[in-house]
Design a protein that fits this description.
Structural class: alpha/beta
Order of helices and strands: EHEEHEEHEEHHEHHHE
Shape: globular
Bound molecules: NADP nicotinamide-adenine-dinucleotide phosphate
Number of helices: 8
Helix content: 40-55%
Number of strands: 9
Distance between the termini: 23 Å
Strand order of the largest sheet: 3-2-1-5-7-8-9
Largest sheet: 7 strands, parallel
CATH topology: Rossmann fold
Amino acid sequence: MQILITGISRGLGSGLAAYYLDKGHTVYGISRNRNPELENHRSFNYLSLDLGNFKAMERVLPEFLNKVGKLNLAVLNAGILGEIKDMRDTSLEEITSVMDINVWSNKILIDLMYANLKYVSQIVAVSSGAAVFGNRGWNAYSISKAALNMLIKLYAREHEETHFSSIAPGLIDSAMQDYIFSLADDPRFPSLKRLQDEKRSGKMPSSAEAARTLASCVIKAHSEESGSFLDVREM
Ligand SMILES: NC(=O)c1ccc[n+]([C@@H]2O[C@H](COP(=O)([O-])OP(=O)(O)OC[C@H]3O[C@@H](n4cnc5c(N)ncnc54)[C@H](OP(=O)(O)O)[C@@H]3O)[C@@H](O)[C@H]2O)c1
């Protein structure tokens, strides 16, 4: 299979890329930073790109995608959390920077895939339970993942030849959780303590474990309606 994954320098994207490469697939990975471990694989192809720089995406991606030709799977995984704080303390600029990576870069990438590939069979956007939980403090991140779910549903209506889904991967012991773990306890944001306790317990799945779970849900997603929002904890 030919698989494109965004955000492969670390975390879930790194785990997913390693998983698919070990299974003998060809992986095209995009992130700003390299991932030396993946570069040992002959079937790994890397593109260094800032998904917050839309002009650079439009300049670089057409040639890259033309060479790729066709994709069995694209995993839109790159994402940022932003700061955990109240909505009223969050500026529009901060919200925009999270929306740019978590939502709009995916719109640009999807449009460029249809313009420059022969076909793409399945597109999976990595979402989050935060899209629906509405926990205090998760401001821009929650809005972005809710918008991402709707973006995917809308594209599913336009491109019936591709199977779309947005999938919440569950908790992952990654740099994103390291940031949450580093925050001081704050009674306004009870979800932080829950996540910190989970990490402390040692039960939070590693990136490699979360990647295996997500990869099996990517297959199961085919039995769900295209455009659905799914959660690995319910699949
Ligand atoms: N961790 C969790 O518990 C959890 C729970 C639910 C959902 N998720 C979702 O799972 C996905 C992966 O999260 P993670 O925990 O693995 O995060 P992570 O460890 O912080 O990794 C994020 C990845 O996204 C890439 N990225 C960020 N900004 C980028 C940019 N401007 N251009 C290109 N790539 C960029 C990073 O690469 P560079 O910095 O090298 O560019 C990195 O490879 C995200 O969509 C996240 O929202 C995570």
